[in-house]
Design brief:
Layout: H1 2-49, H2 52-58, E1 59-66, E2 72-74, H3 75-83, E3 87-102, E4 105-118, E5 121-136, E6 139-149
Parallel strand pairs: 1-6
Antiparallel strand pairs: 1-2, 3-4, 4-5, 5-6
């Protein structure tokens, strides 16, 4: 009987620890999702303010932007286009987003109405971006973005 009580006490303790671990893991996933999404929101703000210095910090060295046309643009070329305003972003309004986090990697899909002038054509674009991010040294970095319409 004594052993049975001891076993039940141990099982109860393990269940409580397991629940605490599960709760902590969920909180970590929520924090990672929020942090990754904050970087995606920061990207939009920096595009509008044409802050290529700060954009450079949140984009991977090998970042690529795949445009709606299928054109794949390097980070350097895209930042140059923003700086010289051949790609000028005026405003964005979010419509929807989803976030999937798997360890140090995240995938963010965001749909926005984007008022922009791209290579001479100004429009409010129904832009969907699928972005891949990686967490490095505690900070999220955007690896790539693939744009389409929605």
């Amino acid at each position: 009987m004594r052993y049975l009580l001891l076993i039940l006490a141990c099982l109860s303790s393990l269940t409580a620890c397991s629940q605490d671990y599960s709760h902590a893991k969920q909180n970590n996933m929520d924090n990672n999702s929020n942090e990754a999404f904050a970087v995606v929101q920061q990207l939009a703000k920096l595009m509008i303010t044409r802050d290529t210095t700060e954009l450079n910090k949140i984009l991977d060295k090998y970042f690529t932007l795949t445009h709606m046309t299928g054109y794949v643009q390097s980070k350097e070329e895209w930042l140059h286009e923003i700086a010289k305003e051949s790609m000028k972003y005026y405003s964005t309004r979010e419509v929807n987003h989803t976030i999937k986090v798997n360890g140090n990697f995240a995938e963010v899909m965001i749909q926005r109405m984007v008022d922009a002038r791209i290579w001479g054509n100004r429009n409010t674009w129904r832009l969907q971006q699928k972005m891949k991010l990686e967490k490095r040294n505690g900070s999220w970095v955007i690896l790539s973005s693939v744009a389409s319409t929605f």
